[in-house]
Structures are given as structure tokens and as C-alpha cells.
């Protein structure tokens, strides 16, 4: 697996911010413990990023969330915390072991009624969701296999409503966006998606760089434009 390289002072600053400002609740912290116990990789979003997702859900008034890449449900729980009473979240995961741990965490967080985990390759699930003719999503978080990032962005535009928010995780990847040789497996998909974000007629986007426990990385935030581009 690709090695992320956090500096000790980035980790310390993140811990300070998490304790002083972010205040992760018991359930999100427990999700991290359960993931570690199950031997899953610690590749969930950082606490301050999780809180940002929750706040973005609330600020945008999202009621229907789509997540691509569940892992142990850490980001799922953060976003779920931002949903109103009648809100729903669909999250895509292809590894049954991950989905099992995630379900236990999500249920323990009291979100079992709102969250649906869809098991299988995300591209299959996304096609199935379109077939089901559901109401469009208000908020889409893309955080799975980086090779398919561009495909996930296209699906976000198809399944999201005009004005919906799209968040794409992992946009710097230790600088691999500048030097793909650092990670020939994942860098091309990340770079391709960034170019698509900048060029897509239905997306208006920015990218924020981050440092912290997950190393030097970042995320993109985009808004889905209506067909006529306004
Ligand atoms: N969003 C999570 C982290 C997701 S890690 C959090 O922040 O807490 C990426 C997850 O995507 C892993 O669990 C991996 O198994 C899953 N994944 C990778 N490729 C996938 C695919 N093609 N379809 C569905 N899930 C996939
Ligand atoms: C990895 C994947 C992620 O989505 C992430 O946020 C950090 C690391 C990884 O596969 O290494
Ligand atoms: Mg990620």
C-alpha cells in the first residue's frame, strides 16, 4: 500500500485541534478502535475533515447523501450526524469484511435507520441506483479506489441534483499529483479526476491542500451546475 508521510508536528497540531475544537463523539472514536481491532487500514478521513463533512452537510441542507468508499463507516457516521431526521445516506463498499465492521459501527452510532450499505463494486451500485430512479442526491462524497475517480465524478453528476455538493478526497497524495512516479498505481486516477473537475461543464470546483495525521493531501469541493451552466 502507498505510504503516507505525516510529520510529527502535523499529527500533534491535528490532535490539539481535534481536542480543542472538533470534539469527535464516542461513536466516531469507537469506529476507529473497531477498525483497528479488525486489522483494517487507518485510511479514514482525519477528525477535522470528518467534522467538515458534517458541517458541509448541514450548511448545504442536504437530505440525501451518497458515499463511495465506506471502510469502517467513520466518514459515514460524521456525515450521518449532519442529516436531518428524515435524511438518508447510501454508502458503497465492495469488501464484505469492511461492510460488516462498518454496519456495526453505524448501528452503534444510532444511524442504522438512515444508512444503507450497498455491497459490491461501486460502479455496479451506481448503475443500479440510476435504474432505481431514486430522488437525486444532495451531497456526494467520493473516497474509494482512486483509479475510478473520474468515473465516480461522472456518476456524481448523473445522480446528483443541480446545486448538489461533491467532495472528492485525496487530491495531493504526498505530491504524487506533481510526480506520478511516487505512486504509479493511484496518481494517474487522481490527476485525471482533477483535470476533469477543472474542465467538466457541469462542475464548478476548488481544491484545498491539507496536512495532518494522513500526511500531505487534500480534498476537492465542487457544485453541480444545472444543464444550462448557471
Ligand atoms: N470514506 C472512508 C474511507 C474509505 S477507504 C472514511 O473516511 O472513513 C476506501 C474504501 O473503498 C475501502 O473500504 C475499500 O474497500 C473501498 N473500495 C475500494 N474500491 C472499491 C470499489 N471499486 N467499489 C466499492 N468499494 C471500494
Ligand atoms: C488511502 C486511501 C484514502 O482514501 C485515504 O484518505 C488515505 C489513504 C490509501 O489507500 O492509502
Ligand atoms: Mg480518502
From TrEMBL:
Q: Which InterPro entries match?
A: Cation-dep_OMT (IPR050362), SAM-dependent_MTases_sf (IPR029063), SAM_O-MeTrfase (IPR002935)
Under PROSITE patterns, the record lists: SAM_OMT_I
Question: Which key words are in the record?
Answer: Methyltransferase, S-adenosyl-L-methionine, Transferase
Identify the domain of life.
Answer: Bacteria
Name this polypeptide is given: O-methyltransferase
Name the species this protein comes from: Arthrobacter liuii
Amino acid at each position: 500500500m502507498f505510504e503516507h508521510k505525516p510529520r510529527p508536528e502535523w499529527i500533534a497540531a491535528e490532535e490539539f485541534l481535534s481536542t480543542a475544537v472538533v470534539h469527535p463523539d464516542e461513536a466516531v472514536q469507537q469506529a476507529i478502535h473497531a477498525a483497528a481491532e479488525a486489522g483494517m487500514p487507518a485510511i479514514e478521513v482525519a477528525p477535522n475533515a470528518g467534522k467538515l463533512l458534517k458541517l458541509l452537510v448541514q450548511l448545504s441542507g442536504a437530505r440525501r447523501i451518497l458515499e463511495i468508499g465506506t471502510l469502517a463507516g467513520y466518514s459515514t457516521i460524521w456525515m450521518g450526524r449532519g442529516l436531518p431526521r428524515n435524511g438518508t445516506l447510501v454508502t458503497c463498499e465492495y469488501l464484505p469484511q469492511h461492510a460488516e465492521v462498518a454496519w456495526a459501527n453505524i448501528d452503534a452510532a444510532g444511524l442504522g435507520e438512515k444508512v444503507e450499505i450497498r455491497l459490491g463494486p461501486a460502479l455496479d451500485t451506481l448503475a443500479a441506483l440510476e435504474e432505481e430512479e431514486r430522488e437525486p442526491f444532495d451531497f456526494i462524497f467520493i473516497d474509494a479506489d482512486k483509479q475510478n475517480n473520474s468515473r465516480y465524478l461522472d456518476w456524481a453528476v448523473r445522480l446528483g441534483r443541480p446545486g448538489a455538493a461533491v467532495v472528492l478526497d485525496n487530491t495531493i497524495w504526498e505530491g504524487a499529483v506533481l510526480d506520478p512516479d511516487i505512486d504509479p498505481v493511484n496518481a494517474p486516477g487522481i490527476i485525471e479526476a482533477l483535470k476533469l473537475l477543472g474542465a467538466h461543464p457541469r462542475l464548478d470546483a476548488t481544491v484545498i491542500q491539507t496536512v495532518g495525521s494522513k500526511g500531505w493531501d487534500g480534498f476537492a469541493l465542487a457544485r453541480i451546475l444545472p444543464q444550462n451552466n448557471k
